[in-house]
Amino acid sequence: MADLIILQQALGILFKDPSLLDRALIHSSYVNENPDAAAISNERLEFLGDAVLGLVVAEKLYEDLPDCAEGELTRMRAVLVRKDTLARMAGSIGLGGYLYLGKGEEAGGGRRKPANLAGALEALIAAIYLDLGMATAKEFIQQLFGDELSGAVRQGVVVDSKSQLQELLQARGQSLPTYKLTQATGPDHAREFTVEVRVDDTVLGLGKGKTKKAAETAAARDALKRLSASFTQ
User: Fold this and answer.
1) CATH code, domain with 182
2) What's the predicted TM-score (pTM) here?
């Protein structure tokens, strides 16, 4: 049996009903090989956890990227909840070591299989949701996926600003924008880059950032603001 006390300590979550946590760890192979154990696999919890995770991620992206289009939000959510990402997050909390597996699945490296890890994580999220409510499940997801969510938001800002500028220029029948690095200052550990965004020989915007991508994003934003102001005059 899995040591649920140690797992709860590792998760920082104390279950009111530990049987839900226990069920979240039961792979179907274990049930198939132990028909007399009255065990229920984690597949139904996995289904529910997928929905809870998707909602929390969608809400975070919606709140943090107010100018991002639906298609881009959908793409980022898909990246965050895909099997490989979930397996990596499950691995970060050592979830594979607690799984109930059949002997064949165990021998085949089942504790490291991305599908098993991803499914167990989704089931765990559902167990937290059912036992402790949405607020606790949301907190758990945001803590576990914190770096992934922050990275997606940063990427979304980059993609959205530059794509918006490109779409606006195309709609006006103008050439595609180009980005030119004009300055790089500071020591290697604290560089600041300055980038111009141009259409042909016309400078549309100027941006600064700690990376070239960040500077390009800032330049695109500056261009959008200037173009918007000129359009309304």
Assistant:
1) 3.30.160.20
2) 0.68
